[in-house]
Design goal:
mainly alpha, Four Helix Bundle (Hemerythrin (Met), subunit A), 0% strand
Length: 200
């Protein structure tokens, strides 16, 4: 939802950065992979219990998530493989947030206040529903349906995760995230079902 509303302005704002990165020899795929490296650092910080630091690094990584597309447009190198790599690393990025959070709260809490197994369970639920949200869209579009609907697309999910880390409100953020992702999953199923019925 948010992505659709700001995509044009966001792409325009990143155009100079894309041109600059392209001039120093970085390819779009290299920028994508560099973003993954940054997100691995987020996972490390989470496991260490340094949530605010993880949020700061996550914010930087989220910026890199838009740089690869900006470089591709600047260089005229948009490819199907690049789109596949970008989508795949998007799923990996969410995993690099949610699995470490489940570990921190459910397996190896660094402080007593984080010894909450229910938070780990909610993190896993958010991970599952996040994957289902993305899968329904990919499968629906592969079948020829339009499926860009939902209250928690990837942009909203990442904002919730990063804010939860920065504000040290992870349980609240994960609860909202899991619920919103479940709602989005159902919204997309029903949206595609409506389209399917209209052409049946």
């Amino acid at each position: 939802m948010l992505d659709q509303k700001i995509r044009g302005a966001w792409n325009k704002a990143l155009a100079p950065i894309g041109s600059g990165l392209g001039r120093i020899g970085l390819t779009p795929n290299a920028v994508t992979l560099l973003g993954v490296v940054i997100q691995v650092l987020v996972a490390v910080k989470i496991v260490e219990g340094r949530l605010v630091a993880a949020g700061v690094v996550g914010f930087v990584g989220a910026m890199f998530d838009g740089f690869d597309g900006a470089v591709a447009r600047a260089q005229g190198k948009t490819t199907k493989f690049g789109a596949l790599l970008d989508s795949t690393t998007d799923r990996l990025t969410e995993t690099l947030y949610l699995l470490p959070l489940a570990w921190l709260y459910g397996v190896a809490p660094d402080v007593a206040e984080r010894d909450r197994s229910w938070v780990a369970a909610v993190a896993m639920a958010a991970l599952v529903f996040g994957f289902l949200v993305s899968y329904v869209k990919a499968r629906a579009e592969g079948l020829g349906f339009e499926c860009r609907v939902g209250v928690a697309e990837r942009a909203e999910r990442m904002i919730l995760l990063i804010l939860g880390l920065l504000l040290d409100l992870v349980p609240v953020a994960l609860t909202i995230l899991a619920a919103a992702s479940a709602v989005t999953f159902l919204q997309r199923l029903l949206y595609v079902r409506k389209q399917s019925n209209s052409v049946a």
